Amino acid sequence: MPPRVLIHLPEPEPPRLVDRPPRRPSVGEEFLPGWKACDYSLIRGNWNGHEYAYEVWVMPTSSDCY
Question: Where are the domains of the chain?
Fold first, then answer.
């Protein structure tokens, strides 16, 4: 499995690749410091020539996902 994950930050921030964590957090759990996972696409893909394992949409930990 690719060692990276594509993270979608709130607009206007562009997506970015980060190192894949040891386990995928559940929706609502902290994913990166200050961010929580809100949605996933568990399909592998390619972004700007870099392979990734899955995509995660995140929001600040202080906000609701939807």
Answer: 4-60
